[in-house]
Design a protein that fits this description.
Blueprint (H helix, E strand, L loop, with lengths): L5 H7 L5 E2 L2 E2 H17 L5 H18 L8 H21 L9 H12 L2 H4 L12 H14 L18 H5 L7 H21 L1
Antiparallel strand pairs: 1-2
Helix pairs in contact: 2-3, 2-4, 3-4, 5-7
Amino acid sequence: MGISLEPFVTAASETPGYLAGRPLAEWNDAYAKVERYFHALQVRNKLLLGQLVSGVLERAIQRAPHEPDQPAMMLAGEEMDRVVGEWYSQVLDEPREATDPMLATRGRLALLLSDMPAKWQDQFLRPGPWPEDFVRSMRESFFRAGPDFQFSQMKPRPMDLGPITTLTKLSNLPYFRFVLLWLVLAVVFVFIFQLTH
């Protein structure tokens, strides 16, 4: 993934302290968000992590002038989802539908089940062709990550409140013994207080 600084330099020449029409602080927050996401996917190699984050931000910066109402963090988040979703679609050979959030979820799970962080960290978001072992492991993990759907019905059951139900069945007035005990204790304390003062 070759990172060119041209979009950054062109966008930075507008106004000092701004990049693509947004404050640098916004882009810094967007950078942190994308970096945390890739870090959550266990991309630990700092050089690779920096390249991946820069690639996503480059795409967000290119979109920024065309969408002035969108904050930088939103653009970066959308581009991050798009880049990762397209990569999952290619690696897993699954069609990517914009309305299907399960591809990204199952793709993340497949990454972790195939032990991508330890074995194939350098393959993450890299264009194909990928090693056969990596593709096989990802696809097998992807199919294992999918749920086996079964229809079921839940019928309400009576609540079991445990031993408290047996305590209330001891007498007609369930709290009578409790109240009587406290009254006896109160009378004893008042009696002791009267004797000592």
